[in-house]
Write the C-alpha cells for this entry.
Amino acid sequence: MYEKGGRITREGIRIHEPGDFAGMHAAGQVVAEILDEIGPHVVPGQTTAEIDRIITEMVAARGATSATIGYRGYQHASCISVNHVVCHGIPGPKALKDGDILNIDVTVIVDGWFGDSSRMFVAGTLSRRAERLIQVTHDALMKGIEAVKPGNTFGDVGHAIQSFVEAHRMSVVRDFCGHGLGRVFHAPPNVLHYGRPGREAMLEEGMFFTIEPMVNLGRPETKVLADDWTAVTRDRSLSAQFEHSVGVTADGVDIFTLSPAGRFHPTWR
Ligand code: MF3
Ligand code: CO
Ligand code: CO
C-alpha cells in the first residue's frame, strides 16, 4: 500500500515525491550489481537454469526479494531470452552454445521499491549481425531515455526509439511495452516503444517507469509458446532487448539501474 503523499494523474500515472527517488536508486542498484556480476557466468556450455540459480543466490545475498518468483505463477528470479526469444524466456536445462546472444532480465524489491533492468550478453563469439542488433537496441533505449524530460510526451519517447531502429532497417516489437513501476511492479502507463511526437501522456517530474525496447532483425510479429510465457519472433529472426528503470526529474531523467561497473553497454568485454 502507498502511504500518504504523491498524486495520480488523469491517466492513472503516479507522481512520486522527491524522497521516493532514494528507494528506487537502492532497488535499481541491486539489479545493476547482479547484472554486472552475472556476466562471467555467461559462457558456452552453461545452462540458463544455472545462471538463474546464481541470480537467485545473488538476490538473497543482498537481502532483496525477487519480484518475479510467484508473479502470475512465474517461478524464476530472471527471464533469460536466447536468440529468437523476444522476452520472458524461462530458464531451463538447455546449454548455451558458442555465439548465442541472450537477454537477462531481473526485477527485485528492496524496502518495497521495485528495480527492473535487463541487458544483452553473449556466450563466446559475437557475430557481426548480432553485434549490430545489440548495438542498435542499446542505442535505441538511450535515444528513448534522452527524450525523457518534463513537457515531452510518451509519444516522443516511443518515436525516438522507433525512428532510430527503423533507420537501421530493424523492427520494433509492438506486442510488449515498458511500464510504470515504483512500489508496484507493473502500473500505468504502458510505455510504447513506437509512436508519434506529441502523442500520449505528458511526462511529469516524479513519474517512474521502465523503457525496454525489443528489436528484431526481421519482422516485428511475435508469438507466445505453449508454456504461456516464452515470446518468440514469428519469423525466427534474432531479437534483442535492453531495459532501464528511470524517473523524471525537474530537468530530465534519473536512471536508477545504471551499471556501477560501467558494464551496461554491450562493448564491456
Ligand atoms: N521483468 C519483466 C519486465 O520487464 C517482467 C517479467 S515478469 C515474469 O516487465 F514473470 F516473466 F518474470
Ligand atoms: Co519491465
Ligand atoms: Co524487466
Notes: DSSP finds four helices and 17 strands in the chain.
